Amino acid sequence: MDLLDRDGRTEREFLEQYRVGDYERPSVAADMVIFTVTDQEADSYRKLPDKELRMLLIRRGGHPFLGKWALPGGFVRPDETTEQAAARELREETGVDDVYLEQLYTFSDIGRDPRTWVISCSYMALINSDKLELKAGDDAADAAWFTVSYRLLREQKELMEDGYVKTQEYELKLRGEEELTAIVARTLTVTPTSTSTDYQIVSNDGLAFDHAKIIARAIERLRGKVNYTDIVLNLMPKLFTLTELQQVYEVILDKELLKAAFRRKVVDLVQETDDYTENMGHRPSRLYRRKLEE
Questions:
Q1: For residues 108 and 210, is the Cβ–Cβ distance under 8 A?
Q2: Are residues 36 and 174 in the same domain?
Q3: Do the bridges between strand 100-107 and strand 118-128 make them parallel or antiparallel, or are there none, so unpaired?
Q4: What DSSP element (H or E) covers 17?
Q5: On the CB side of 233, how many CA atoms lie within 13 Å of its CA?
Q6: Cα-only R_g, the chain
Q7: Which residues span the domain enclosing 197?
Q8: How far apart are CA 132 and CA 145, in angstroms?
Q9: Do the beta carbons of residue 181 and residue 205 sit within 8 Å?
Q10: Distance from C-alpha of 101 to C-alpha of 31, rounded to nearest angstrom
Q11: The domain spanning residue 246 has which CATH number?
Q12: Is 160 exposed, middle or buried (CB count within 10 Å of its CB: 0-12, 13-18, 19+)?
C-alpha cells in the first residue's frame, strides 16, 4: 500500500504535481586548486635544484572579471556529479586525470559571483609535474603556473567570557606572468560547545571572484595533511631521493626541517629501491618509491 502525505497524495502523484520553478535554484560550479612542485634552475650542476610550489591559474577571457586570473573550473553539467565535473575540468586544463583529487570546501557566500547565485564546490588536486600538458579552456585567454607564497603577517587573540576569538592575517603572493597579492583574514572562534572558522578577503589585487579565499583554504588543507598523511607523495615522481622528498615537504610547509627527524617521520611512508641517481654531478643517492599498503 502506498503511503499518503497530509494532502492525500501518493509519491507518484506528488512528483507529477511538483513544480521545480517554484523555488530559487543556484548554479553550481566546480573550482580547482591544482598544485604541483617544480625545480628551480640550479646555479651549479653540482647543486641540487630548489623546489617551488606552483598552482595553475587561468586568465579570464570574458566578463565578469575580464583579464583577471582565476582558478580553473566551470559549471556542473546536469548529467554529472561535482566530482566528475572537477575531474573533467582537470583533464581539460592539464591533460591528466589519474591524479590525487579531494573535495576541499563548499563556498556559498551571497554575492560571490556578480552574475547570479553561484555555489562553488571546490577541489584540490596534486600533480607530479612530469605529467603536465598545459592548455587553456574555451573561456580562458591564457593558462599559467604561479609560484605560491602564503605567510602569516599578524595575529591577535581576544578572550571572551567563555572562549576566545583568534584572527590571523595571511599574505598570499602568486608569482608568474604577473605578481598577484591578497590579504586573507582567518578568524577562529572557540567556545565550550563549538569551534568555527571564517575567512575574509581583506585586500585583493588581480584575482577574480573570491578565489583568494579558496586558495588560502587549499594551502592550509595541504599543510595540515602533510603532518599526518602521505599526501606529499602524490607530488613526487615514481622514484625520488629522500633529499628531494624533504625539499618538497619544506617548500609546502615554508620552513626547514631537521634531516634526522624528517627521515624518522617518513620511514614508514617510503621503501628503498636498488636504483641510484645518475649524472647528477655529485655522489649517487639511493632512490626510493612510495610504500603501498599491503
A1: no
A2: yes
A3: antiparallel
A4: helix 11-17
A5: 17
A6: 23
A7: 27-226
A8: 11
A9: yes
A10: 12
A11: 1.10.10.10
A12: exposed
pLDDT digits (tens, 9 = 90+) for 61-109: 899 999 999 999 999 999 999 999 999 988 888 878 788 999 999 999 9
Residue 222 grid coordinates: 595541504
Report whether 207 contacts 69 (CB < 8 A): yes
Residues 119 and 236 in one domain: no
Q: Are residues 186 and 256 in the same domain?
A: no
Cell numbers given for 2 = 502506498
As given in the structure block, the three cell numbers for residue 196 are 568555527
- The residues with which 164 forms a beta bridge, in sequence order, are 159, 190
Assigned domain for 2 exists: no
Q: What is the pLDDT of residues 144-193, one digit of tens each?
A: 999 999 999 999 999 999 999 999 999 999 999 899 999 999 999 999 99
Give the list of residues 6+ apart from residue 81 with CB closer than 8 angstroms, or none: none
Sorting pLDDT into bands at 50, 70 and 90, what band is 142? confident
For residue 49, the 8-state DSSP code is P
Based on the domain organization, do 43 and 96 belong to the same domain? yes
Residue 20 in domain: no
243 and 142 both lie in a single domain:
no
